[in-house]
């Protein structure tokens, strides 16, 4: 059974940093492109970042480019998102999601981890 | 980049048919995907490549395409179908640019 379990969220002050993790199980993790998607309070879903199965290729949404870094450790079946220079508008539930064909859609998602940026 | 536009809300009675639309100028050239999202839960893929249904998704969920508008249809709506529904596609302007519609709240009255 495919499982994705996010962790690392919490309350953080503006300008702070946080590292989110997503532990994967039930599939060959290194074979799959992975993404982070967030949902801000009262709003919809926003794709944040993606990383190829090897970890070589990444891309970011314009709103986070330069502040967020996606990475993965295939030996630990874990996806990461390092988020720096946090802003109030980064407050959201962050989901990790699996792309089955590297074509830009997601067949499995985690339950999400909440990041709250507040003074 | 292009945008995907969805109605904010749709309401139906149990047993009726719900139709949720997603509009975008580039859609005739794109695949569209649909997700169901209930509060506190992981989003669930219900339609991929416009009209394909993943394993385990009930047959009452279907997708169709008509030019610049794609439609998610839920036939014989059940109370458990109440959720937010998002359409999604790819921008194509970069290496990997995923875009979502604003979401539609389906209320089962």
What does this structure look like?
The complex is a heterodimer of chains A (119) and B (109). With 119 residues, chain A is an all-beta fold. Chain A contains no helices and eleven strands. In chain A, strand 5 and strand 6 form a beta hairpin. The termini of chain A are far apart. The model of chain A has no long low-confidence stretch (mean pLDDT 95). Chain B has 109 residues and is mainly beta. In chain B, the strands form two sheets. In chain B, strands 1, 3, 4, 7, 8 and 9 form a six-stranded mixed beta sheet that branches. In chain B, a hairpin with a 6-residue loop joins strand 3 (33-37) and strand 4 (44-47). Chain B is globular and about 40 Å long. The model of chain B has no long low-confidence stretch (mean pLDDT 93). Chains A and B meet through strand 4, strand 5 and strand 10 of A and strand 3, strand 7 and strand 8 of B.
Break the fold down into its secondary structure elements and pairings.
The complex is a heterodimer of chains A (119) and B (109).
Chain A: E1 3-7, E2 10-12, E3 18-25, E4 33-39, E5 45-51, E6 58-60, E7 68-73, E8 78-83, E9 92-99, E10 108-109, E11 113-117
Parallel strand pairs in A: 2-11
Antiparallel strand pairs in A: 1-3, 3-8, 4-5, 4-9, 5-6, 7-8, 9-10, 9-11
Chain B: E1 9-12, E2 18-23, E3 33-37, E4 44-47, E5 61-66, E6 69-74, E7 83-90, E8 98-100, E9 104-108
Parallel strand pairs in B: 1-9
Antiparallel strand pairs in B: 2-6, 3-4, 3-7, 5-6, 7-8, 7-9
Query: Mind summarizing the main beta sheet of chain B?
Result: 6 strands, mixed
Computed over alpha carbons, the radius of gyration of chain A is 13 Å
Structural class of chain B: mainly beta
**End-to-end C-alpha gap of chain B:** 36 Å
What is the element string of chain B, with H for helices and E for strands?
EEEEEEEEE
Unreliable spans of chain B are: none
Largest interface: A-B, 24 and 27 residues
Give the overall form of chain B: globular
| Mean pLDDT reading of chain A | 95
Biggest sheet overview of chain A: 7 strands, mixed
